[in-house]
């Protein structure tokens, strides 16, 4: 039991939170690419990304795992993004600090989505049952390159007032 829920129910809640974070992150990034000011989508992205990170730490894990490592790194990225947004107010260098840290947190969500997809979806699992096969590595490489390109484009186009 976690927070009064069975592990299965808690896992479902965690997955839904993660998917909302990813969807909101996609919309927030699209809006930044258009040069728009940060809005509700960005707030939803940050809130649900924090929630998915926090709920990830609540699973009954007894040893250090890659998931815990990703959660720690995500926590640091989110703390930096929140600092840049709420303390630095995106002024000067805080803009690129925010973009880099928020996009990195978004990337980590998508990275975990790919990992979980290859582990849990039968069709994908057939191509990479251990996560060490080339289809998995290629997929993660494409995702990483896509986020690097997205980061450069957002840095170039996003200029909050």
**What letter string, H or E per element, gives the SSE order?**
HHHHHH
Major sheet: size, sense and barrel closure? none
Task: Label the structural class.
Answer: mainly alpha
Total of helices? 6
Strand count: 0
- Radius of gyration, whole Å: 16 Å
Strand-residue proportion? under 5%
Poorly predicted ranges: none
Overview of this structure, please?
- The chain is mainly alpha-helical.
- The protein has helices at 7-33, 40-57, 66-86, 93-120, 122-125, 134-157.
- The longest helix is centred in the middle third of the chain and has 28 residues, at 93-120.
- The protein is globular, with a radius of gyration of 16 Å.
Explain the layout of strands and helices.
Elements: H1 7-33, H2 40-57, H3 66-86, H4 93-120, H5 122-125, H6 134-157
State the main characteristics.
161 residues; mainly alpha; 6 helices
In brief, what are we looking at here?
By secondary structure, the protein is mainly α.
């Amino acid at each position: 039991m976690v927070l009064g829920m069975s592990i299965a129910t808690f896992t479902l809640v965690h997955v839904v939170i993660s998917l909302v974070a990813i969807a909101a992150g996609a919309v927030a990034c699209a809006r930044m690419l258009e040069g728009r000011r940060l809005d509700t989508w960005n707030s939803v992205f940050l809130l649900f990304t924090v929630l998915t990170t926090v709920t990830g730490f609540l699973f009954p894990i007894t040893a250090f795992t890659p998931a815990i490592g990703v959660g720690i790194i995500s926590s640091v990225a989110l703390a930096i993004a929140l600092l840049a947004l709420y303390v630095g107010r995106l002024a000067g260098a805080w803009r690129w600090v925010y973009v880099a840290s928020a996009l990195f947190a978004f990337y980590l969500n998508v990275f975990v989505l790919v990992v979980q997809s290859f582990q849990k979806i039968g069709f994908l699992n057939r191509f990479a049952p251990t996560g060490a096969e080339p289809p998995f590595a290629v997929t993660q490489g494409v995702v990483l390159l896509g986020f690097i390109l997205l980061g450069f484009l957002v840095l170039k186009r996003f200029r909050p007032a």
